[in-house]
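Dear H.,

Thanks for agreeing to be a second pair of eyes. The structure we're designing against is below in token form, covering all 482 positions.
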């Protein structure tokens, strides 16, 4: 027993020593090393490695450590919040603006305004003067909808945490939206064209359901996006930066839409979503709706349980591609509103937030160099590479004019390259000013989850519109939540 106790004590001491030694072995020079958090696959990491190599070659003595965080964007949010508590936060991180509403409370989010407008220069490796900030033309070259997402006025209580009205809290990296993928073969065989409005789609639904008896007319991946987009298009209200009434979705118009449109069509079996189906509805879409078995006689066709229409992210367009039938992609059906038709679409995708590094002794210099690395990520070459790999649209305009390979990529849209088609449609929506974002505040991500749940409950018919909305509001904390 004495030998056992002695052995255990030795192990404990060794482990304790190893922890101390490990902690002591963190030789990172935080004054000269930029810590960057993202969630990227191997191919995107290789593109980021190129940006890092370019930056480090331009500015000898400076390093970038790229930490890939697991569990997606929410994993980054959790990690950054934990690190802020321990004063170990990164210098730069992928983010959704919702996340920044949490980070702001620490007052560690850097206002990018002065860096953006800075005419100060630093010397690169060749002795050239490099401007820290953007020129007026470079600022104008951002896609306006993406750039404006970072304005402090989109965030509740920005002034409470020391930010001015014109502060910039994030810059966009790459973006996506939602698109409508459809089974062209099925529509052609039914003598129909792709629906241009939601009303038209619901008019087609009984025809399609009768012809394709095992098929689902519509798969919509994101319940939350559907709820938020329709509220935005109709002007019903979803959320507000007004801290006295953050939640606007508890209104009769929303309830009527849930009951009269969503519940009615769900009851007929026309609708499924990612949560209800249990997977991305692109998997349902790719199944196809019939197996013709080489026959032109419709009586010989085997009915399949696929989907005819599918709404999914432009960034995931390749997941919709199949050889089972002829597919196509277009923008979402327009909503018929009191003021005509609206075809606004939600803007998604990662932005970049800069944080003051508590472990650096040179915070001003560190911020300037981190911003220069951010500019490297926003260069046409890196934007083009990420767009071609991931299918997201660049946050800056005219990339194709600077990067010939990107112009060739976009031209493939005419050759039915689904990724190029999706990027091109996203760019067209952005250029036309048809993309929107929602206000950010502590609790805005909860609101998104709750309205998504409300739509799901109505589709499943476990709640009516009024109950679903009432419960969503309650789960958000009510309208006096701050």
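And this is the sequence the design step returned. I haven't edited it by hand at all.
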């Amino acid at each position: 027993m004495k030998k056992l106790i002695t052995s255990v004590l030795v192990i404990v001491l060794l482990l304790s020593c190893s922890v101390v030694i490990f902690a002591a072995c963190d030789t990172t020079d935080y004054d000269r090393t930029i810590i960057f958090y993202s969630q990227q696959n191997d191919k995107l990491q290789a593109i980021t490695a190129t940006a890092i190599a370019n930056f480090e070659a331009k500015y000898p003595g400076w390093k970038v450590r790229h930490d890939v965080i697991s569990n997606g964007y929410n994993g980054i949010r959790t990690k950054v919040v934990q690190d802020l508590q321990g004063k170990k936060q990164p210098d730069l991180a992928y983010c959704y603006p919702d996340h920044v509403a949490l980070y702001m409370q620490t007052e560690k989010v850097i206002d990018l305004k002065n860096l953006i407008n800075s005419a100060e220069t630093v010397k690169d490796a060749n002795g050239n003067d490099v401007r820290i900030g953007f020129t007026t033309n470079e600022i104008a070259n951002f896609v306006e909808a993406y750039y404006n997402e970072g304005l402090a006025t989109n965030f509740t209580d920005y002034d409470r945490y020391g930010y001015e009205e014109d502060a910039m809290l994030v810059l966009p990296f790459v973006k996506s939206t939602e698109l409508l993928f459809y089974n062209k073969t099925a529509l052609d065989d039914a003598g129909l064209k792709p629906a241009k409005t939601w009303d038209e789609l619901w008019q087609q639904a009984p025809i399609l359901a009768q012809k394709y008896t095992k098929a689902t007319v519509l798969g919509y991946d994101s319940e939350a996006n559907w709820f938020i987009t329709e509220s935005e298009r109709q002007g019903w209200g979803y959320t507000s930066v007004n801290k006295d009434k953050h939640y606007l979705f508890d209104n009769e118009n929303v309830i009527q839409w849930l009951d009269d449109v969503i519940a009615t069509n769900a009851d007929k079996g026309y609708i499924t979503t990612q949560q209800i189906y249990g997977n991305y509805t692109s998997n349902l879409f790719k199944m196809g709706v019939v197996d013709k078995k080489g026959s032109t006689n419709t009586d010989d066709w085997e009915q399949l349980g696929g989907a005819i229409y599918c709404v999914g992210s432009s960034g995931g367009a390749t997941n919709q591609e199949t050889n089972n039938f002829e597919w196509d992609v277009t923008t979402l059906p327009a909503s018929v509103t009191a003021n005509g038709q609206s075809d606004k679409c939600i803007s998604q995708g990662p932005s970049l937030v800069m944080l003051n590094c508590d472990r650096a002794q040179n915070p001003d210099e560190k911020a300037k160099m981190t911003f220069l690395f951010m500019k490297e990520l926003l260069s046409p070459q890196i934007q083009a590479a990420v767009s071609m790999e991931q299918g997201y649209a660049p946050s800056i305009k005219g990339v194709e004019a600077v990067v010939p390979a990107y112009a060739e990529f976009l031209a493939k849209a005419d050759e039915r390259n689904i990724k190029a088609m999706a990027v091109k449609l996203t760019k067209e929506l952005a250029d036309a000013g048809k993309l929107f974002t929602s206000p950010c505040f502590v609790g805005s991500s909860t609101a998104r989850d709750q309205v998504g749940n409300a739509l799901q409950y109505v589709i499943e018919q476990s709640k009516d519109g009024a109950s679903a909305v009432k419960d969503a509001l309650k789960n958000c904390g009510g309208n006096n939540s701050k």
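Two observations from my side: The longest strand covers residues 307-313. DSSP finds 20 helices and 20 strands in the chain.

Warmly,
E.
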